[in-house]
Amino acid sequence: MNMTTRSLSNKRLKQIYVLLIASSFAMSCGSSKSVATKKNTSTKTVAKSENLRKLDSKFDGNLSKSINSILKDAEKYIGTPYKFGGNTSSGFDCSGFTVKVFEENDFQLPRRSSDQAEAGKKIDIKEVKPGDLLFFATAGGNRVSHVGIVHDIGDDGEVKFIHASTSKGVIISSLNEKYWNKTYLHAQRVL
């Protein structure tokens, strides 16, 4: 092998290595595991949507100091851009955001959203409180591909969550929004 061929081979190996590393981050907000929750058909989505909008929350409004701290840390990143594989204030993907916020409060979460979806205890949407995690199937099917942190629950039961959205970066969204309502899978309590 001459120097040019060896140089090209090394360059190609580096490209493959970078591609493999990048693809491992691709799963950060995705999943290779199925979630037990079945996706509703379009007929049932309307009923699901109505149920979430009329949510009779059992949240009493009281928050622990640690949850308040997590929410304050999450809020300070509002406006931070989305960055594939990102987990710093220069840019986040969804699970990088949750990992960073919880890590700042001495709590470790798995890096991938699909693994976060198995951490802690699965809870009913009526039981959620700020600090809980919400999981979504934004890539279709039943696989977890997005995660957000419950931010607050309105008097009418509207669940708002903070997350790193691919289009707008770190924002607060509502589970009442059609897109999030349709893609919602389940909630987990990790604290």
Structure report:
With 191 residues, this protein is of the alpha+beta class. It contains six helices and eight strands. It has helices at residues 3-26, 42-53, 65-75, 94-103, 113-116, 178-183, and strands at 87-88, 91-92, 121-123, 133-136, 146-153, 159-165, 169-174, 184-189. It has a six-stranded antiparallel beta sheet with strand order 3-8-4-5-6-7. Helix 3 crosses helix 4 (94-103). The longest helix has 24 residues, at 3-26. Mean pLDDT is 79; it is low at 17-28 and 30-54.
Please render the helix and strand layout as text:
Elements: H1 3-26, H2 42-53, H3 65-75, E1 87-88, E2 91-92, H4 94-103, H5 113-116, E3 121-123, E4 133-136, E5 146-153, E6 159-165, E7 169-174, H6 178-183, E8 184-189
Antiparallel strand pairs: 1-2, 3-8, 4-5, 4-8, 5-6, 6-7
Helix pairs in contact: 3-4
